[in-house]
Amino acid sequence: MRTHLELLCRLLVFAGSALMVRNIIRYYGFTKRMRWMAEGRKNRLALYVPLMLLLSFLAGYLATGLLGSPGLVTAFILFGGSVFVLIILSIMYYIVDQVAENERQLFEAREAGKAKTAFFFNMSHDLRTPMNAILGYTQLARNPGTTEGQMRAYLDKIHASGQHLLALINDVLEMSRIENGKLELNPGPTDLRAVLREAEDLFTEQMREKQLRFLVRQELRHSCVLCDKSRLNRVLLNLLSNALKFTPAGGEVELSLVQTGGDETVGRYELKVRDTGIGMSEEFAEKVFEAFERERSSTVSGIQGTGLGMAITKSLVELMGGSIRLETARNEGSTFTILLDLPLLPETKNADGETGACPCESSPRPDTAGHRLLLAEDNSINREIATLILSEIGFTLDTAENGREALELLQKAGSGVYSAVLMDVQMPEMDGYEATRAIRALPDPALASIPVIAMTANAFSEDVQAEREAGMNAHISKPLDVREMIQTLIQVLNLKTK
Predict the structure, then answer these.
(1) Chain segment 18-46, per-residue pLDDT in tens
(2) H helices within 210-348, ranges in order?
(3) Domains of the chain
């Protein structure tokens, strides 16, 4: 019995010794991790004091086990001491890991803060640039001696600056929706040939003015597909705008769309934008699709942009189920390649039996005879623009400056006078939601059921849902798209087309 007890005691001492060896190795690894945090030679040397103590403990363990006759209590104390040191080391490792993780998160937060600070600095400059152009050319246009040719040139520049300003604002709003997970697609029949043609029309003159060679190539067996045309246009706009910005005079930009495969229901398409511009550094190319990033160099310091365009492009492509890749090198240009699988739709045939475009791509002119509209809009400029557009289409129009005035005009006119109400959402006294609910509560069933169409800059999906809940029949976004407006009015009013 005594022999078995002595054997058990020695086994416990040697087990404690083995644990102590493991503790020494683990602590030595810990000191290597802590050296970068310890400031000064004295602090670094202090890390080795516990190591010396652990080694002395190990020597004592071995001496007791090999030379002495340890009792059961001594054996348990030595083994328990090794377990205790192991636990303490594990806790120390956990604490250091947490500190390191917090440091990493703090560093990333600081970097993100720097990127956003740089973004807002850039935005402040970039928003003022088109605004200065708009105000400056407006002042020039108001001069008494301005000729008709000068006026037209000033208006063209004001329009271009306004489009640029709108693009900057859209970038910020769209990135906010992407980060909040609220961005949604609105797929519809789309003619890919028409999309490429519109992009070519939009950029041809700009490329010519910058002395760039602009090539557009397409190889499509089937061009009528189901996709979100506005989002696809946005992707093209971002890629071509970048190619235009970063390609010096005398360079070349190529836009190509090739159908590379698919089956009877889905087509695979490769969309490519290639330029011979300044290209990107390898470091920046790795983060070009991150939000708020802009390469900082003397070559690009004077070029406008939010640093959001490529992040938005990647998000839109992935939302459409596609992928995007970049090939670039400094001073050798850049090539963005997008792969998309898009559902195929039936195409029309022309008189010769050749495949034509999607039926949806035509722009019919509605028969507006006998149709009178009521427009509720508090902004005088928006009211004037909408009036001119709707009058050009052929509608007769009355206007109100807020929802309460629109409600009163509708009640005074009675049923059968107005075909529909075009309702802004944000107005003083009575907003569009409240006015629509008041219309739906009118005692006259004919007036209460009149079509109400939201015409507003609140264009997010939750805004459209709020409009539906208030009783509105459809939605038209601002800035006004004439084609969208016509299609919406045809659909809501069931208009015949000429």
Answers:
(1) 888 888 888 777 777 676 555 555 566 66
(2) 229-245, 282-285, 309-319
(3) 2-107 (no CATH), 188-359 (3.30.565.10), 372-493 (3.40.50.2300)
